[in-house]
Amino acid sequence: MSKSEELADLKKECLSCLRCELGKTRNNIVFSDGNPDSAKYILIGEAPGENEDLTGTPFVGRAGKLLNEFLIQAGISRQEDLYIINTVKCRPPKNRVPSDFEKEQCRNFIERQIKIVNPKAIILCGATALKSFYTTKIPISKIRGEWLKINVNNIEYNAMAIFHPSFLLRNHSMEVGKPRWLMLEDLKRIKNM
Ligand code: URA
Predict the structure, then answer these.
(1) Does the CB atom of residue 53 touch ligand 1 within 6 A?
(2) Domain of 13: which CATH number?
(3) In what order do the strands lie in the sheet with 82-86?
(4) Number of structural domains in the chain
(5) Which of 64, 69, 152, 164 has the fewest Cβ atoms within 10 Å of its own Cβ atom?
C-alpha cells in the first residue's frame, strides 16, 4: 500500500470522529494537504480557520496565502515537498486556540499521519504546534530556527519551529532580523538540510 492509500484509510476513520465538541460545529474535517508520497517535510499548524473549515484544506486563507509566498521564495514546493496538517482537524469556534483536551483527542490521528509519511523533518508552525510537540519554556521568538529533536510515539524526528504566518500578517517589515526576514531564513535552512 502506498502512503496515500494508507492515509486515505485513516481519513475515513477521521471523518466520523466526534471525540470532542469541535466535531459538532465543523463543516469539514481538515485532514491534510500535499503529496505524502513525495513530501520531505510535515508542516504542523495550529488549527483550521473559517476558510479551511469551509474547504477542508489547511492554510488556504490569508495566513495560508502568505505562507505560500514564503515557501515559493525559499524554493519549497507546497504540493510536492510538504504534507500539511494542524494540531486539530476541526475548526475551534471563533478561531480560539484548541484546548489540551481537543488536541489530545486528535493526537492519535496526527501521530499516525506522521508515522506513515515518515518525514525528513517536522516544521512546527507557531507556538501551539511547538508546545504540542516540544516541552520548553523558551518562547517561539527565541527557539525558532534551531534544529530540535522531538519524539513522536517513540520515534525521533528532526524538527524546527518557525513563526506562524498569522503573526507575520501583523509584522510587515522584511528588514534584516525582523520576523519576516527570519521566516525566510528558517525556511531556507529547512530547504538546505
Ligand atoms: N492557521 C493554521 O494554523 N492552520 C490552518 O490550517 C490555517 C490557519
Answers:
(1) no
(2) 3.40.470.10
(3) 33-34, 82-86, 41-45, 121-125, 155-162, 147-152
(4) 1
(5) 69
Residue 163 near ligand 1, beta carbon < 6 Å: no
Closest CA to 111 of 165, 157, 64: 157
Per-residue pLDDT tens digits for 112-141: 999 999 999 999 999 999 999 999 999 999
Four-residue CA torsion sign, 62, 67, 70, 72: negative
Our mutation pick for probing the ligand 1 site, out of 46, 53, 78, 87, counting the most ligand atoms within 8 A of Cβ, is 46
1-26 pLDDT tens trace? 999 999 999 999 999 999 999 999 99
Q: Please name the residue that has the C-alpha cell 506513515.
A: 116
34 close to ligand 1 (CB < 6 Angstrom) = no
Range of the domain at 172: 3-191
